[in-house]
Every structure is written in C-alpha cells, then in structure tokens.
Amino acid sequence: MKALIVAAGLGSRLGPLSDDAPKPLVEVGGVPLIKRSIDILESRGVDDVTVVVGHKQDSIRQVLGGAVSYVTNQDYATTNNIV
Asked: Which phi and psi angles does 43 have, rounded to 5°?
C-alpha cells in the first residue's frame, strides 16, 4: 500500500515552534510529527511512503533518510504544500 505525506509548507501557523525546524520535525514526546505519521502508516500496512518536501527540506531528508521517497515542491513559498 502507498501513502503520500505533504510536508512542504512553511508551517507558519505554529509560530515559534516552527522557527528553527520545519513543522514536520516539531517533536511531540521526543518524536518528530512526521516520524509519528510514518510509524502509524507502517503499522497499518503501508510500505511505500512518499513525502512532498520544500521548506527546509534538507532537515526532513536528514531525519528520514532513505526510508521514504521524496518529491520536491520548488514553489512551496507560493503554493504551500501541493505542487
């Protein structure tokens, strides 16, 4: 099964929580939000996850590594998440 996670946006509604790290890397209980999402998907049988990245994408790629596939939204500043 496949899943798509949109994680390209600026995360501006989180205010200071997303000043230093992109919203998907904000931690809850010591675990980044995006990692929690991937873990839940995998526990439900999803074995192919693609993440749409844009804003601070290097940080997201560093945390997730090769565990997922990536699509880059170069226009994230004007389109937010979706390409």
From this structure: -70, -15
